[in-house]
Write a structure and sequence with these properties.
CATH topology: Porin
CATH architecture: Beta Barrel
Strand content: over 45%
Mean pLDDT: 79
Shape: globular
Helix content: under 10%
Length: 457
């Protein structure tokens, strides 16, 4: 999840989708986290003998929100506001073995400059707001060194490691923390010459000046009728890791395993991460995290969705000098607007791991084609480790979204709202340093209302 309460955005993306050799699961996704769905395929153009496929998207939001920093009715932090974000770029197919991608991005608050915005997250990166930034500049080399199944990419690129296909990343997503830069500088190589197996190695320098190195194996056996299975396992080594308290850890190793299983209209998935490492000369990392769920997508007779998701991240054990909390500032889970969403809110940013979440969702299409749809989600949040006062309830949230496909998937209109009722543990995690208002946090209702227009072409 990204910055707390990075709200309304304007996003314009131009990129491409030329056919290439097989690429790793963690491949470029042109849609910033928090949008409704992936951008549809664009139309290829031939310019000077080179293939260029251009895609675009405009994403507009307007919101009204209250108590959004501290859950305290007595403090004035209710507002209607807007943010704008833009990206523009293209991808060129140079012959059959080379691709080049360049994206430029810009973000600012509507009618204002950086000084008007909420502060950066506690473990976030420096602001680049109001300045055009390089989001992506990468080159892809396919059939590298004469090996048909080997691809190499270098430069600044989008990175997205996930267990559920096209789902959120529980551990590493380049769009998951920094407000302005959504790509990482580095190199990755993927080899798919072994039946049903993809092996990917990578090394990246992140905007927060930390580094991450990884090796991942993805096993995707042939489908059997309506049954599909995907298994992934990886090892990641992170260095100079920023922590919520403003300090940095020396070295962190994360072992990750996951499975995504589909049969007919039912999807089940589970993943887990175990962490060990060195914070400094006196302390070590000893954390873990897990996530899993089930989702059913049917047509009876209208499109319908129902699901359950459980997330569990270890917290800091009282009296233990080591960091036992799960460390994942670059995750992108965004099921709820206020507690989790990078674009509209993220109260979970104030925690270092230390969270258990149970989420139930239901969606129903009001027409057989699903052109009109309603979705509702309920989430209950508990701390993994109690506060100093013995509190564990962090809060509950319920969100409602109405979606109208104005022109198929090319134009979507959404009305949405959410309410988060903080629990007894919430005020102890929000301090004057974290919140832009001056005063103690409380347990009053935090709410959000908004409208969204998404046009994709």
């Amino acid at each position: 999840m990204r910055q707390p309460f990075l709200a309304p955005t304007l996003i314009l993306i131009a990129t491409s989708a030329a056919a290439v050799e097989p690429v790793p699961r963690a491949q470029f996704n042109p849609v910033p986290q928090g949008t409704v769905q992936d951008v549809p395929a664009g139309r290829p153009l031939v310019v000077g003998g080179r293939t260029v496929t251009v895609l675009g998207m405009i994403d507009l939001d307007a919101i009204q929100r209250g108590n959004y920093t501290d859950g305290n009715d007595d403090l004035s932090d209710t507002e209607g506001t807007g943010f704008s974000r833009a990206e523009i770029g293209f991808r060129l197919g140079l012959r059959e073995k080379i691709q080049a991608q360049i994206n430029i991005g810009y973000r600012t608050e509507a009618g204002g400059l950086a000084v008007n915005n909420p502060p950066a997250p506690p473990n976030g990166t420096p602001e680049n707001e109001g300045v055009a930034t390089l989001q992506e500049a990468r080159v892809g080399l396919f059939e590298f060194a004469g090996l048909q199944s080997l691809s190499v990419e270098a430069g600044r690129m989008k990175v997205h490691w996930e267990t559920v296909r096209e789902g959120p990343s529980f551990l590493l997503d380049s769009r998951g923390d920094d407000r302005d830069i959504t790509g990482w500088d580095g190199i990755r190589a993927a080899y798919g010459g072994i039946t049903s197996l993809m092996i990917t190695g990578s090394a990246y320098k992140l905007p927060d000046l930390s580094s991450v190195y990884g090796i991942v194996g993805d096993w995707n056996p042939p489908s059997a009728g309506a049954q599909r299975t995907f298994v992934t396992a990886g090892y990641f080594l992170q260095k100079d890791i920023p922590l919520v308290d403003g300090t940095r850890g020396r070295e962190l190793s994360s072992w990750q395993v996951g499975i995504d299983y589909n049969i007919d209209a039912t999807k089940l998935w589970a993943e887990g991460v175990y962490q060990l490492g060195t914070v400094d000369d006196q302390r070590d990392f000893k954390g873990y995290g897990a996530s899993g769920g089930i989702r059913w997508d049917g047509n009876v007779p209208n499109p319908m969705t129902a699901g359950l998701r459980i997330d569990w991240m270890s917290g800091q054990k009282q009296g233990d000098p080591n960091i036992t909390a799960f460390v994942n500032p670059w995750e992108s889970v965004s099921d709820t607007y206020i507690m989790e969403h990078e674009k509209y809110g993220e109260l979970s940013r104030y925690l270092q791991g230390n969270l258990r979440a149970v989420k139930l969702n239901y969606g129903l299409g009001f027409t057989p084609r699903g052109d009109f749809r309603g979705d509702i989600i309920y989430a209950n949040y508990q701390l993994d480790e109690d506060t100093a006062e013995g509190a564990s309830s962090y809060g509950q949230e319920i969100d409602l979204t109405l979606t109208w496909k104005y022109d198929g998937d090319n134009a979507l209109i959404r009305l949405f709202g959410g309410g988060f009722k903080p629990g007894s543990a919430f005020p102890e995690t929000i301090t004057d340093v974290d919140a832009p208002t001056d005063g103690p946090a409380s347990t009053d209702l935090i709410w959000l209302l908004g409208a969204n227009l998404l046009v994709q072409f």
